[in-house]
Amino acid sequence: MPTSTHAFCYAIAIGSNRCGRHGSPMAEVRAAIAVLPGMVAVSPIIASDPVGPSIRRYANAVALVETVEEPPAVLARLKSIERAFGRRRGQRWSARVIDLDIVLWSGGAWWSRGLTIPHAAFRERDFVLGPLLRVAPDWRDPLTGLRVRQLHARLLRTLPRLDQVGRRP
Predict the structure, then answer these.
(1) Whole-prediction pTM value?
(2) Catalytic residue at 99?
């Protein structure tokens, strides 16, 4: 049950690195985008290297959605979508058919059991900041005060450079 008539905006990170009932990881991300309620913008889907022990490449995107729901209700809705897609809880960073995370919301910071906004690691993840830059470059991180474009520029300065054929020097 919504507790406010004011619509909040949420930045939702979407990722997949395992085929599911909708097909390839890219198709899974597209299908997840299609079922997110209140969509106002979506980034292009990008391919990214795995994080942690996973060996499969990811398809990633960020969607902006508007709703009157508070963060716990939005998280519950995202978890329900993950379950409908066949997501099972398991090892951290393991292959997953879909992963939906609240990265930011227009209400600022939020802390509760099982939910922290902004997402704890979004500032260090190009596969989140890159797509987020495409849909919300001026959104400010409520903890640092920096805009997404500034966070992304800082991150790019810290990433290893690749030579012209894609190898680390």
Answers:
(1) 0.86
(2) yes
Q: Are strands 58-67 and 39-42 parallel, antiparallel or unpaired?
A: antiparallel
pLDDT in tens, 113-132: 889 999 988 998 999 999 99
Q: Is 141 a catalytic residue?
A: no
Catalytic residue, from 30, 56, 83, 87: name it. Answer: 87
How big is the chain by its Cα radius of gyration, in Å?
Answer: 16
Q: Is 49 a catalytic residue?
A: no
Q: Of 101, 123, 125, 141, which one is the catalytic site residue?
A: 101
Active-site option among 56, 83, 99, 141: 99
What pLDDT is recorded for position 163? 43
What is residue 6's predicted lDDT score, i.e. its pLDDT? Answer: 84
- Angle of helix 71-84 versus helix 25-35 axis, rounded to 10: 130
Choosing from 18, 83, 96, 138, the catalytic residue is 96
For the record, the structure tokens of 108 come out as 């600022």
Contact 149, 108 (CB under 8 A): no
How confident is residue 61, by pLDDT bands cut at 50, 70 and 90?
A: very high
Distances (CA, A) of 78 to 19, 73, 82, 109, 137: 19, 9, 6, 19, 23
- Name residue, tokens 């005060």: 145
